[in-house]
Amino acid sequence: MALDTETLKQRLAKQRWTGHNLRLNDEVTTWPGHSDFDPLDLRLKAIRRILRFTFGDQPGKLRIADLGALEGGYSLALARQGAEVIGVEARKLNFDKLALLEEHFALPNLKFVMADVKEFTAERYGAFDVVLALGILYHLDRPVEWLRQVAAATRRLIVIDSHFAPADDHALSKIDPRLSALSALETVTYNGISYQGRWFKEFEPTFSREEELWASYSNWRSFWLTKGSLVRAIRDAGFDLVLEQHDYSADSHDRLAIEFPRTMIVGLKLN
Ligand SMILES: C[S@@+](CC[C@H](N)C(=O)[O-])C[C@H]1O[C@@H](n2cnc3c(N)ncnc32)[C@H](O)[C@@H]1O
What we know:
single chain, alpha/beta, Rossmann fold, 7-stranded mixed beta sheet, 3-stranded antiparallel beta sheet, 10 helices, 10 strands, globular, binds S-adenosylmethionine
């Protein structure tokens, strides 16, 4: 049953919302002062376009995983359209917010799991028509292996929104200072195939990882693939089509190419 306004306000007062402003009822939203996540979030709009392009108007038939769910905006929006959604989030301070959504909306087709996405396998979670990997790949230390593992649980479509590492040192000098904790270029090998990238230091190994709500969870440094290696890794993981989605980010194209290197890639399996 939906929680009443007073209860919602008390529960929200104990939480720290940082990204998804979700409307809980006529009076209460999770992150007041910010625009409504649904329908205004640009990535959500882009994902809806991708789903419509791929599956037509049938979100209700889809099984979707949202990996690194943070505050559940994507999971909730797609579950409200009828999809069966599982959101996976490791950090307790974020998971508490997801638990509030689950309790308040009580949708039978929306479930959140507090777990490490590194343990997301077909054996544990089953197969999904769609996997959303938004803002998570660049928080992992073994992204190539992880993509293979996730691909094995993906029947049709993966949407990856990720930073990537500059391929040359000249580009590194132009990067936003917030992203500058990148190492020299390194090569990693998986199944005899080489991929390039740079290590990104997320926090000191001794830091309390629970407090940094947007950071990696089970590794203190992450391996950012270069864009070339990222698209190869997605293809090598088993996606027949690998497309770059520009429509939500077209206005920031130049910034996202160099200063704040980030992209949304869609991988599609042709059945
Ligand atoms: C940058 S935020 C992105 C959140 C959301 N997907 C979005 O795009 O708005 C990264 C999220 O992934 C979670 N996370 C990081 N490493 C994780 C891991 N190994 N397993 C599960 N969640 C993780 C963080 O706690 C955080 O909620």
